[in-house]
Amino acid sequence: MSEKKKDIFEQFIEYISEFEKRFDEAFYSILRPFRFTEPSWDPQRCCLVPLVDVQEYPEEIVVTADLPYVDKEDITINATENALDIDAKMRNSIRFERWGTIQRDISFNCYHKSIKLPSRIDPEKAKAEFKGGILRIFLPKKITKQKIQID
Q: For residues 107 and 94, is the Cβ–Cβ distance under 8 A?
């Protein structure tokens, strides 16, 4: 069975999509050495990168993330001793029209953020709270030294 031949419009849309993908990759690879921030979206996964604040205190690290349009049940947090991943599904998709109607138009339906932590933490003792679209994660630091009793 032969495949259906694509018409000129389908070929053009594929060509433009591939061009946009390659342009984005080239653009960000050029800017990376200048330490510009990474884009706040991932068009392939339809994810936005949430605004995140990481505060380090003597006993713990507190990570605060802004997750509007998210329900508590739709948040997944995974932690290791030195990294944190936040994934959240949005209630409704969000669409941004970039510079008018002639630019590409993407619908975003999730958030994703990977964070390298400034100190080692104890993931088993971590706690989180979610209120009013703000996620706060409390990560107790891993005790790296302990006083030894002399007999």
A: yes
pLDDT tens across 16-38, in order? 878 877 877 776 666 555 544 55
Q: Are strands 47-48 and 105-116 parallel, antiparallel or unpaired?
A: parallel
Q: Give the tokens for residue 109.
A: 């339906």
Provide the CA 103 distance to its chain's centre, in angstroms: 23
CA dihedral 29, 33, 39, 42 (to 10 degrees): 40
pTM (predicted TM-score): 0.67
- What H or E segment, with its residue span, contains residue 110? strand 105-116
Task: Give the domains, in start order, of the chain with CATH numbers.
Answer: 42-140 (2.60.40.790)
Helix (H) or strand (E) holding 78: strand 70-79
User: Residue 76 phi/psi, 5° resolution?
Assistant: -125, 130
